[in-house]
């Protein structure tokens, strides 16, 4: 896969579809490598007429890891976030949004459909806030505004987020299967064999828990986007699972209410993942929003 020097970091990326089609940039979530935008999902969007780009965020996968920044104190950052204290972070979501825009620059793409999941949704929102001229449409999936008024994760889901994973490959895979049985979709079939294969490939590409911690602290340090989201004027789609225990559906509702004219799609039975059974709804909605923007 190619990689490029963007905003002071190397980004690993991959594309699907015809270069002459409208660009659609996929931004993944916390600690999740680009392969969690599954190949078939990317191809389905490409088959619907998009030039699809997926990439590893900084501190993830085969992109640059900021090892010199060290391992942040996540507990202290969470306390500071709740009390209004100062949060020390190696970077913020604004830098990650600039990475996304920089990748478009390198590829010679003036404007793109921006689609983000979870933390990727927060990054996509930040792109729309800070670089609106680069956005055709915005799709925010299983994400939130950062508002403290949004209900927190369920305790069992928060435990998944904060529990350190085992260092060995088999232990890491078992840990992730257990985690996704807690935060994933209960209303759709879970293909454990496929999931184990993808987690194994992710481990082989890169295993870096401190990088995940730096990303998490970047989210905490970036604060509440709700008021700034009111300035977004690009056509927006918000997708959220009704049964998401990690980022409750209220986060999606809050996002849709903050952005003028946003469409909200609540998916029954969907948790904090992208289950294959929900792909038809999700892909149709993204394509419909794209067509409406082009009309």
Written description of the protein model:
It is a single chain. The protein has 295 residues and is α/β, with parallel strands linked by helices. It has a single domain, classed as Rossmann fold. Helices cover 43% and strands 16% of the residues. Strand 3, helix 1 (39-47) and strand 4 form a beta-alpha-beta unit.
**Portion of residues within helices:** 40-55%
Radius of gyration: 18 Å
Strand order of the largest sheet: 1-2-4-3-5-6-7-8
Number of domains: 1
Instruction: Sketch the major β-sheet.
Output: 8 strands, mixed
Mean pLDDT, rounded to whole units?
96
Oligomer: single chain
Total beta-strand segments = 8
Strand content: 15-25%
**What is the approximate shape?**
globular
The CATH C-level class name: Alpha Beta
Structural class: alpha/beta
Report the CATH architecture. 3-Layer(aba) Sandwich
Distance between the termini: 34 Å
The number of helical elements comes to 11
| String of helices and strands | EEEHEHHEHEHHHHHEHEH
User: Going by CATH, what is the homologous superfamily?
Assistant: Alpha/Beta hydrolase fold, catalytic domain
Low-pLDDT runs of 5+ residues are none
Annotated CATH topology: Rossmann fold
